[in-house]
Structures are given as C-alpha cells and as structure tokens.
Design a protein that fits this description.
The protein is 34% helix and 12% strand. It has 229 residues and is α/β, with parallel strands linked by helices. The protein has one domain (3-188): HUPs (Rossmann fold). A 5-stranded parallel beta sheet has the order 3-2-1-4-5, sandwiched between helices.
Length: 229
C-alpha cells in the first residue's frame, strides 16, 4: 500500500499507535486533530508537539465547540467517573463524536485525493462506546462511498482502517513499542491535574495502566495515583 492517508490523531495512546501503523503500512500520514471543547488540552498539546515527529506530512487542527451540545463528562460540567470500568455506556461518551471526526476526515481525504482513513478505535479494552464497534465502522465506510464525488465518479474507494480494533491494550502497546512509539509523549487521562498529571482512576487511566501491566512495561507518564486494577 502507498499514497496519502488521513489519520485521526488525538495525541493519546491509541491514536499515536495508529499513526505509527499508518506510516509502517507505507502511507504518507496526514494527521487530523480536534479542539472540540474537551475539558482539558493536555492530549491536544501532545498532538501539536508530536505530529511531525511521528512522521505526519501535515497536521490539521479543526476547531469547533461540542460544549454547546454537551451531554458528556468530556464536554460539560458532569463529573468524570472514577469508580472503575462498568458495563454501561459511561458519561464520558461524547454524542456522535466519531461520526463527526470521521466526517471531517472524509472531507479532507477527498480534497487530498486520499482514499484511506485511519482511526484508533478499539472494541476489546475500551469503555463501551457504540461508535468504536466494527459494525459502526463498516456502516460509515459504506456511507463514505455513497456520499462523495470521488467515490461516485469512480476515482477510488474509501477504506476506514481500524488496526487496533481487535487488539487488547497490551497488544496495542507492544505493537507501538515495536514501531518506536514513545508513550511518554502521549496522554490518555480524562481528568488530569492543571499540571498535566494523569488522575490514575478514570476509565481511560485504568485501561491504560492495565495494558502496560499486562504488557510487562512501565508506563512512562506521571500519575497522581495509580488504580489498583
């Protein structure tokens, strides 16, 4: 495979690994990040600082405000849960977020003449978000090939790549390390301190710490407290 690919890149563990995989697959990655009114900027700061170092040919930051809609602990004043990963869809789910992100990525891909989009969704070690499932990705890919001039006119077929979707967090970490990813330059916490320390207790921190423990590798980022899970 070769050519351009748009990679959704938040600056977190999964999206950083995904960017490294797109590059390893032979693509020229075009990284896309979003300032969408999220409750902190620590992850986005990592994305801004590291996109080019990770091999991105260009880094596009799209700015809009989902706080106007709310409905999530990440885009409103709802408290981030710290009690452990449960069975229900948590309040950290942001309504339609991946659909919005992928729509922007699709538009940029069409302008770039790219037909490949990478997104670091995961259906194993994740918080239960409905827009991280394989059936959702398949449905979006079908829509992309019905809704774009490039696809309808036969210039190419859009593919949504989800290289992490069936991996455990430990497997994701091992894959990233094999590609030279510096996980000290990533951020995953939903509710960090003003200094950028991870809380260690939100779902994202718990899943990250569990992944590093199972991979037998020390997590290089700083935590206020590390969960016991």
């Amino acid at each position: 495979m070769s050519g351009k690919a748009v990679v959704l890149y938040s600056g977190g563990l999964d999206s950083t690994t995904c960017l490294a995989i797109a590059r390893d697959d032979g693509f020229e990655p075009y990284a896309m990040s979003f300032a969408y009114g999220q409750r902190h900027q620590a992850e986005l700061k990592m994305a801004k600082e590291n996109a080019k170092a990770m091999g991105a040919a260009e880094h596009l930051l799209v700015d809009f405000d989902l706080r106007k809609i709310g409905g999530s602990a990440l885009t409103s004043d709802i408290d981030v849960p710290k009690g452990g990963v449960g069975g229900d869809i948590p309040v950290t789910y942001v309504p339609a977020r991946n659909t919005i992100f992928l729509s922007f990525a699709l538009g940029w891909a069409e302008v770039l003449g790219a037909f490949d989009i990478y997104i670091g969704v995961n259906a194993l070690d994740y918080s239960g978000y409905p827009d991280c499932r394989p059936e959702y990705i398949a449905a979006f890919e079908t829509m992309a090939n019905l809704a774009t001039k490039a696809a309808v006119e036969g210039a190419g077929r859009y593919r949504i790549h989800t290289p992490l979707i069936h991996l455990t967090k430990a497997e994701i970490i091992r894959r990233g390390l094999s590609l030279g990813v510096d996980y000290g330059r990533t951020h995953s916490c939903y509710d960090p301190t003003p200094e950028g320390l991870a809380c260690g207790r939100c779902d994202s921190c718990r899943l990250r710490l569990k992944g590093f423990a199972e991979a037998g590798v020390k997590d290089p980022v700083g935590y206020v407290v590390k969960s016991e899970e």
